[in-house]
Amino acid sequence: MRAALMYGAGDVRVGDVADPGLKEPTDALVRITTACICGSDLHPYHSMSASGGPVRMGHEFIGVVEETGSEVSTVRKGDLVIAPFAYSDGTCEYCRAGLQTSCVHGGFWAVNGVDGGQGEAARVPLADGTLVRLPVGADDALIPSLLTLSDVLGTGHHAAVRGGVRRGSTVTVIGDGAVGLLAVLAAKRLGAEQIVLMGRHTARTDLGREFGATDVVAERGGEGIEKVRESTGGGSEIVLEAVGLRPAYEQAYGVVRPGGTISRVGVPQYEEAPVGFGSLFGGNVTLTGGPAPARAYIGEYLPDILEGRIEPGRVFDRTVDLDRVAEGYRAMDAREALKVLVRP
Amino acid sequence: MRAALMYGAGDVRVGDVADPGLKEPTDALVRITTACICGSDLHPYHSMSASGGPVRMGHEFIGVVEETGSEVSTVRKGDLVIAPFAYSDGTCEYCRAGLQTSCVHGGFWAVNGVDGGQGEAARVPLADGTLVRLPVGADDALIPSLLTLSDVLGTGHHAAVRGGVRRGSTVTVIGDGAVGLLAVLAAKRLGAEQIVLMGRHTARTDLGREFGATDVVAERGGEGIEKVRESTGGGSEIVLEAVGLRPAYEQAYGVVRPGGTISRVGVPQYEEAPVGFGSLFGGNVTLTGGPAPARAYIGEYLPDILEGRIEPGRVFDRTVDLDRVAEGYRAMDAREALKVLVRP
Asked: Can you give the residue ranges of the Alcohol dehydrogenase-like C-terminal domain (chains A, B) (predicted)?
């Protein structure tokens, strides 16, 4: 079958890979109908060494079940299903606690011999714990919104939940990518009163305003920090960091209020960072967040999308065929596209 | 008057300093009757450059009010009072929220021209917000326990509160100093079911067991991590870090369970540390804590001490006169003494 392959920084091509098939009785085989490119796919697009490639790509997809293993009971042939960005057994203590990204038998797409989402099909391990059936057709107008449940909506929601957003909260969101904008939507949905969005791409921050941002700060660095501290009356109670680069982390502890919380969901492209008296400790600032258990949030958000109360799919502003996936990467990297849908 | 002065690493002497007097109408003048040496005083004792000295020392004291400014209304001449390790106005938004260490008008003892606690007397700024009257005499047998309210008990409690300890929690405490042992006491008081104390000084860990530790792990590094992960069934839900050195931080993220919380109260002797995918982010670990608002916890703990339900004063195992304070530092540094009471 055809699938996206990354050969090194800036080099994505579509190539032939082995057709997937069932390996375990808990597997399902899914023919992918809609996939997309993630902001986090741009990290290797910037830095991947050619000696490591080619690698499979993609971790967000909707598709039709073609075949199921003998132990799969919750989905069957013909079902339209969505996969979150991590697969999980649904039964271990972490899954039961709603932290499926720490599932003891789980893992991530496109690594360790598992298929990626940017391709024609995928073997889905632990199908019962991983997949959720969607009560619509594969071409439904809601598909873009539903696809955000695989990652960016759940990730934005996770930022807000871990950050402790509740009715009346003051929240600052760092980053105007799809996750940042959906963190705005999630914070609004949880009742935040003031939502400051830090971003400087007007088309995106305009969408952020529609999702619920009350203030937009385009400045960065010290100037941006000053503006946020001013508009929040001395610092933001909750900061949602949706970028993953170190300057965004520094922005976060710059704008947070003493006693406040920084919730990170952008995959950190750094290992060490300031955590001492001058950054987190002195002001009793809490640092939280991590890979979102998107699976845990699908059930909660599904009715909101199906009944049209939210339209997270508006983050998609371009669609490419799988054969032109490289063009999608280029457009997102150049910030010409916010988020790109891929049709296999 | 006489006061402890640190001239550089390993060099503490008692010298003459200016007699304190009222400067502001919100000040009180307190004749110190009992003070002590803190584990955090050992940080400069290890590393202070002689070019920075001499500096005043001490931030924990009980004493008798000698004089009050015209605006002071809650304490008066003759009252026995305790001061927490930070002074605060008691009225700003942070004080009202119980985060007195971030008071907008507050500060710390022994810096910026403010007196230290290891001396004969102190000018207390913002006396109404800072001091709490004690309903006992200056020589009462409860004085050592009451003195822990100025810092180490409040700090141990803060670790537990920020860590989210509640009935049934599994908690690991890193450090067998006074704060670590009182973090054990606080965790027990909040209902923790399993309390693993990491420390290798048997006399201290024995006291820790009396305070509520259910397990003691003497090993450090990888071996210590392995032991804690084993005894907690895969990692500790809550980790209270009561040391402040980087190896203790590394121990903390080594033993914490996915989705768990590390609460730090040992003043970090490092600014940068691991926070990326491999340490905090990947397992959705929360990092919290900071300087304890000891003032906020005095009222809550006072009845427990006055009525004999807890005996936090057992952390004091030596007493020195102010003139021999250097001996107290030496004994604590050599780990011959756990915590040293100082009688001016």
From this structure: 178-289
CATH number for B271:
3.40.50.720
Q: What residues in B contact A279, CB-CB < 8 Å?
A: 271
Q: In a 3-state reduction of DSSP, which class is residue A32? A: strand
Number of domains observed in the structure of chain A: 2
Tell me if A275 and B259 make a contact (CB, 8 A cut-off). no
Give the residue numbers spanning the domain of B69.
2-151+293-343
How close, in Å, is residue A143 to chain B by CA atoms? 29
CB B243, CB B267: distance < 8 Å: no
User: Do B127 and B158 fall into the same domain?
Assistant: no
**DSSP string of A70-134, one letter each residue:** TT--S--TT-EEEE-SEE--S-SHHHHTT-GGG-TT-EETTSTTPPPSSBSEEEETTHHHH-EE-
Q: Give yes or no: residues B24 and B140 share one domain.
A: yes
Does B283 lie at the interface with A, CB-CB under 8 angstroms? yes
Sign of the torsion formed by the C-alpha atoms of B250, B255, B258 and B262: negative
Q: Do A31 and A19 have their domain in common? A: yes
Q: Are residues B217 and B99 in the same domain?
A: no
- B52 and B127 in a single domain? The answer is yes
B173 and B238 assigned to the same domain: yes
Helix H or strand E segment including B128: helix B127-130
Residues B164-169: contacts with CB under 8 Å, at least 24 apart: B164/B238, B164/B261, B164/B263, B165/B190, B165/B191, B165/B192, B165/B238, B166/B190, B166/B191, B166/B192, B167/B191, B167/B192, B167/B193, B168/B192, B168/B193, B169/B193, B169/B194, B169/B237, B169/B238
Determine the Cα–Cα distance for residues B305 and B310; give it in Å rounded to an integer. 6
Query: 35-94 in A: which are within 8 Å (CB) of B?
Result: 94
Would you give the DSSP letter of residue A267?
P
B139 and B173 share one domain: no
CB contacts under 8 A, B 305-324 vs A, are none
* Claim to verify: residue B318 and residue B213 sit in the same structural domain: no
**Residue where one domain finishes, among candidates A289, A312, A327:** A289
Per-residue pLDDT of chain B (344 residues; tens, 9 = 90+): 999 999 999 999 999 999 999 999 999 999 999 999 999 999 999 999 988 889 999 999 999 999 999 999 999 999 999 999 999 999 999 999 999 999 999 999 999 999 999 999 999 999 999 999 999 999 999 999 999 999 999 999 999 999 999 999 999 999 999 999 999 999 999 999 999 999 999 999 999 999 999 999 999 999 999 999 999 999 999 999 999 999 999 999 999 999 999 999 999 999 999 999 999 999 999 999 999 999 999 999 999 999 999 999 999 999 999 999 999 999 999 999 999 999 99
